[in-house]
Amino acid sequence: MSLDNRAQSPAGKPHERLADYLSDDMDAVNRLIRERMASRHAPRIPEVTAHLVEAGGKRLRPMLTLAAARLCGYDGPHHIHLAATVEFIHTATLLHDDVVDESERRRGRPTANLLWDNKSSVLVGDYLFARSFQLMVEPGSLRVLDILADASATIAEGEVLQLTAAQDLRTDEAVYLQVVRGKTAALFAAAAESGAVVAKAPDDQIAALRTYGDALGISFQIVDDLLDYGGASETIGKNVGDDFREGKLTLPVIKAVARASAEERAFWERVIEKRQQREGDLEEALRLLHRHGALEETRQEALAWAARAKAAVSELPPHDLRDMLSDLSDFVVERIS
Amino acid sequence: MSLDNRAQSPAGKPHERLADYLSDDMDAVNRLIRERMASRHAPRIPEVTAHLVEAGGKRLRPMLTLAAARLCGYDGPHHIHLAATVEFIHTATLLHDDVVDESERRRGRPTANLLWDNKSSVLVGDYLFARSFQLMVEPGSLRVLDILADASATIAEGEVLQLTAAQDLRTDEAVYLQVVRGKTAALFAAAAESGAVVAKAPDDQIAALRTYGDALGISFQIVDDLLDYGGASETIGKNVGDDFREGKLTLPVIKAVARASAEERAFWERVIEKRQQREGDLEEALRLLHRHGALEETRQEALAWAARAKAAVSELPPHDLRDMLSDLSDFVVERIS
């Protein structure tokens, strides 16, 4: 099955080619996820988890683990556990994020906190987090445990930092990067690194895969934040301005604030810090972002991080999966290139 | 210092004698907790954590780990990490519990969710949980990791189970026990067991300490639930009825429901499942609890679990700490004896 797919879709999107190539492994990961999200005692747990897990999503993070392990020549069983661990950690953070952000939609469906309640989302998130640690203990690698425990702490730290930093105009690019590492890059990096570690790859390959995951994750998040202002082109698209309306400070605004006149600064204080927004403010914000070249500069940074990801995988030995990961770093910035 | 205290307070309460005996170890645990609850990037984290950690509490759980390790002859450094781990897990669950229960007071002070917000409590709880896993990886014992990861999953499962079971009259004693193991006993058991494991104690001693922690925790929680109805005596004290007013099904009510007439069952359905309570309902509930001997039977169960805890430690070799743990199992049921 997966061999056929591999042959038939050489020109598909890189994450689809990865999914085809790794389809047997991903099937095993999905089986393990379904098995471990069950609970003998509390039926609420699989209800909530199934709602989120079965909504799909690209499963990029577990695929990174599987791809890293396979391209480092691993043929044991433990990458399956680690990939499921990574997906459980990701799912747990989504559940808690939706409570924190009071979100009502995720992946086109109502969120768990809306369908059940905040209590269920908090506690089922805790359950998945605990299950992820049970899963990661099974392969018996202390080095992998170290990597994933560190990633979990960085994720939580980044989320707390965002609580205070996202509405504070003093937030600079270093703090933004720290938040982005927590929100996105830490788990991408740990996912790729742990796959290489379980494969007992040489240290330089492990480091290259970690760098790849980190840079890919950062690029991914910057693109997201840029597209929320419609990208770097002057044409304003649809679905623009969610971050702005939430008063969330992202890289484009940080750059514009750094170059703001006194009058412009007063504008940003009103709309971001005080969240007193009125008709026409989003248009004014976009005008300022363009005037200071903030969107174009943000775009350049996303491209630079994608290039760093690409350079990191180029250090690995030749392999179909290496090429797919390389293409994936292009794909992440495709919408802004 | 600790030696003087040891000599001076032979007749103190058992947890105070444990604290005196283990004071050097507990100082090291407290230093490690303060060090690890810091965050270079997110100052909100130590603010929230300090509020809870410095409010005190008896620190029973980390003391169980220290006592178990010491009485099994351990003289290495790792029991300190494990005791801090256990306290971090406990603190993380308290933060999330207060969000779930919408509590406003904890240990006589306003809760973190009241002082800051639910978001901070959820995310700082996640941070502490991740930090606890970092801490428990450091001693490098996969067996300990297994024990603590399992305990974390049991805790979360018990909390989710309680969400649905606590207002459902079909909840039986087996489900109640499962909830209590999650809420209280799982961490007591893991705390004691992991201390023995890090000391490389023989398997029968490890098992005895696990059984002790489990039985002590169950007894502790049943006493709490019993005292919420004023204990087994006919005199009604103050501060009675919190669980009743919250419509929370605990062991006394489960026993009364099991023997209820049709009319009594309708009463329980109204006050617990529908939470339609009026003047005089608590008095009626107490009358039914006494009529069916539910409070006396609950009291007997608490005593039986305490006796099981006592019997378990009696299998350990003679040691001052063993005697203190034995006394602790008496102390837990002192208020209902």
TrEMBL record, chains A, B:
<keyword id="KW-0460">Magnesium</keyword>
<dbReference type="GO" id="GO:0016740">
    <property type="term" value="F:transferase activity"/>
</dbReference>
<dbReference type="InterPro" id="IPR000092">
    <property type="entry name" value="Polyprenyl_synt"/>
</dbReference>
<dbReference type="InterPro" id="IPR033749">
    <property type="entry name" value="Polyprenyl_synt_CS"/>
</dbReference>
<comment type="similarity">
    <text>Belongs to the FPP/GGPP synthase family.</text>
</comment>
<dbReference type="InterPro" id="IPR008949">
    <property type="entry name" value="Isoprenoid_synthase_dom_sf"/>
</dbReference>
<dbReference type="Pfam" id="PF00348">
    <property type="entry name" value="polyprenyl_synt"/>
</dbReference>
<protein>
    <submittedName>
        <fullName>Polyprenyl synthetase family protein</fullName>
        <ecNumber>2.5.1.-</ecNumber>
    </submittedName>
</protein>
<keyword id="KW-0808">Transferase</keyword>
<keyword id="KW-0479">Metal-binding</keyword>
